[in-house]
Automatic annotation (TrEMBL):
This is Lipoprotein. Residues 1-20 form the signal peptide. PROSITE patterns: PROKAR_LIPOPROTEIN (PS51257). It comes from Paenibacillus profundus. It comes from the Bacteria. Keywords: Signal.
Amino acid sequence: MKKIYLFSICILMFLLSACGNTFDDAIKTASEYKKIQFEVHDHNNLPSIEEIKEKLTPFLKEIFLETEIANRTIALSINVAKTKQVNINPEKIEFIVNDKSRN
């Protein structure tokens, strides 16, 4: 599961850097993406996979969204919220950048 998570972060960071965004903009966009991916406001009224997919569409190309759905990373937060009967609100999202050229 950790590999899937790291893979999705790497893909997201690659796509964002290819678009010419500044480093800080890329981190902000990646944070927004992860918040949408994992946030569940009301465990009694869970969003569907399609609703989350629609919100994530501006961030990823269709093929990467389909990969996320196939790997069940989009459904992870929904399943946890449903099973544990809790709302999920990511409060602190941090990224570790392994870019030796950035000092």
